[in-house]
Amino acid sequence: MAKRTFSNLETFLIFLLVMMTAITVALLSLLFITSGTIENHKGNHFFSTTQSPPATQGSTATQSSTTTQSSTATQSSTATQTSPETSTPEPPLFQNFSGYHIGVGRADCTGQVADINLMGYSKSGQNARGILTRLYSRAFIMAEPDGSNRTVFVSIDIGMVSQRLRLEVLNRLQSKYGSLYRRDNVILSGTHTHSGPAGYFQYTVFVIASEGFSNQTFQHMVTGILKSIDIAHTNMKPGKIFINKGNVDGVQINRSPYSYLQNPQSERARYSSNTDKEMVVLKMVDLNGDDLGLISWFAIHPVSMNNSNHLVNSDNVGYASYLLEQEKNKGYLPGQGPFVAAFASSNLGDVSPNILGPHCINTGESCDNPNSTCPIGGPSMCIAKGPGQDMLDSTQIIGRTMYQRAKELYASASQEVTGPLASAHQWVNMTDVIVWLNSTHAAKTCKPALGYSFAAGTIDGVGSLNFTQGKTEGDPFWDTIRDQILGKPSEEIKECHKPKPILLHTGELSKPHPWHPDIVDVQIITLGSLAITAIPGEFTTMSGRRLREAVQAEFASHGMQNMTVVISGLCNVYTHYITTYEEYQAQRYEAASTIYGPHTLSAYIQLFRNLAKAIATDTVADLNRGPEPPFFKQLILPLIPNIVDRAPIGRTFGDVLQPAKPEYRVGEVAEVIFVGANPKNSVQNQTHQTFLTVEKYEATSTSWQIVCNDASWETRFYWHKGLLGLSNATVEWHIPDTAQPGIYRIKYFGHNRKQDILKPAVILSFEGTSSAFEVVTT
Questions:
Q1: Beta bridge partners of 719
Q2: Which helix (H) or strand (E) holds 63?
Q3: What are the Cα distances from residue 770, in Å, to 515, 546, 767?
């Protein structure tokens, strides 16, 4: 390639970028926090119903301090760093039955819903500004009748599980339960919603994407995961597990079909589709046949909500969980009730729910080409759309289809899962795995690196700098920028990753902390003839097929025939994508994000086969534990500061600025605007467990009954940030067809930060109430 010369403009841009980066790095280096120094205050709020008749005029606002107790709230304060706990004694288990002890639990893990980036698209400025639905951790514990072996599977409504999150959860589980719940028998899996808060990572690439580490969100997630496990542990009872499988149609496309076509034709001919359409469902019931819970694994990206969204939510898989839990938990508000339904992630790496496919948003023509680019505007114009009128409609269409299929498979499940429980786990240095390609030839994994097409994004969320997918050559301009700021990548790492042109040589960067993990978890748990492989990233469709087939064959070769192997994605630590060797050659987004090089999949197949062999031959105790991953104590503070909230002169927090109309019809939107405060305060002071309620007046009991909260998909909570601590909060209720006619009101619950001179800041709770309004059906 001919040497490129730079224009005066490009030279000036390079100089400007270098200077800006140098200043930023200098500032960030001053902003370290020690993870144990921030306190997270928590408590419980129980909504009491008002015994007076509905107000017909005006509104009310009440406020209470975290240091006082009022008639509507109770609260307590504890530090985030828990003191050592003694091992919780195990309750006696009933043993004389056929099946498993089963426990299910669900707990909130939402974290911040404002002043924090959303995790998934890595789009600057896509920060949270409210909430559409809450995020939950859903835990499932299975134990043998005598209690000797048990396994834990947790599906969490977050983008992915970070290594720091897992290590902290395991540490606290050990403090509370001793050796009962361990690294080998606990799987933590993220659903991969791209609309959950970021800020809970320790490796620098993800800290940068998160715009800092949020200890408040991290601690809230840890607490929610632990609480869901605690609930499942407490609720364990004898029961049975059934498995069923079936295809789900009309909800997926392969977003990198040209990469998929690189796989051997003979391999592709064995499959009817370039996505995995099969859903695997576990049905859990007690010995009386009463429902306990469901786990579903299905390959789909939760990106129906696109990168223009600013409301925290659980996307399409979360909507499927919501529908099934609401159906099974009749009479309960969302997020409550005994039945727990998890729609867990699988080999979703190249699978999109935006089934209308990629089109140029400026011309409408298809951009389904190898580079996902448009004739006018380039790759930034090439975006895929879902089946609905807007992204929320698409979310519900895709989620409802998954819910309906899971419901059918659950109802017809008749194949019982029986047999012993087992688990195997290793920590592996993924930068240095020798991969045996055959009996005489070996290859090696690489230090982590991201390619040029990583910056291009995907048709579900394009990058901001007009990079193109499918790049197998670098660019001198961006190479120069990288070299000046970060240093040059070594010849070794460039050679190892070919044909990937390296944009970021993250495996050679260690300031302020390593940019990517070296030590990665590999893990399998088995329930009789079911094997759950915990994948630390996003497998593409064909990668998942190869791993399933290899693990199943390994089990079979040691006497465990007809094993069902499921891919559980986004588990334990995040390492981006894993493509096949052939897909890697195309260097689209997924391949450019395969950080350990072209032989990553082969390495994982080798490692997981080793775990399967250990389980099948009962030699798990002989497995090498592997090098323990680090847990960094100092991380970069979020750049958005905490500021004091202020109400307008003559107003109080919770006052109504725009009242509800006197009357609404079913299908309309009731909207109320309140004097607000920053919602992130509610992570520090959890006096209120919801930002809103919709309440209906019951004349017979002369009381208000809650019909919706902020976990309901028909409500929206928007936070509008103003200047100098001023803000408004908008609550919307999209009145469903099922709403009963009657008198309603909307309540807003918030927390404001107050700080007097020379005194520490305090977080005060408040609430506001709309005037009453009538809902009519015609």
A1: 729
A2: strand 60-65
A3: 49, 57, 10
How many structural domains compose the chain?
Answer: 3
400 inside domain: yes
pLDDT value at position 96? 76
Final residue in a domain of this structure, among 477, 508, 539: 508
Residues of each annotated binding site = 192, 301, 538, 577
| 3-state percent helix, strand, coil for the chain, nearest multiple of 5 | 25, 30, 45
- 506-523 residue pLDDT tens: 999 999 999 999 999 999
For residue range 392-416, what is the model confidence (pLDDT) as tens digits?
A: 999 999 999 999 999 999 999 999 9
- Cα–Cα distance between 694 and 731 in angstroms, integer? 10
Buried b / exposed e over 625-658, threshold 16 CB at 10 Å, is ebeebbebeebbbbebebeebbbeeeeebbbbbe
CA atoms within 13 A on the CB side of 538: 25
Residues annotated in a binding site for Zn(2+): 192, 301, 538, 577
**What average pLDDT does the structure give for the chain?**
90
Residue 750 lies in a domain: yes
Phi and psi for 303 in degrees, rounded to 5?
-130, 30
What residue numbers bound the domain in which 694 lies?
655-776
For position 63, what pLDDT does the model report? 53
Place of tokens 């004694």: 89
> Catalytic positions, please?
352
Least confident of 363-367, 377-381, 463-467, 758-762: 463-467
Would residue 60 count as lying in a domain? no
Mean pLDDT across 132-155: 96
CA atoms within 13 A on the CB side of 289: 3
Interatomic CA distance for residues 715 and 735, integer angstroms: 9
Closest CA to 507 of 517, 522, 499: 517
Q: What does the pLDDT read at residue 87?
A: 54
The structure's pTM equals 0.89
The answer to the question of residue 53 being in a domain is: no
Note the pLDDT of residue 124: 87
Region class of 377: left (phi > 0), else alpha (psi between -120 and 50), else beta: left
User: Both tokens of residue 176?
Assistant: 């509370």
Same domain, 499 and 377: no
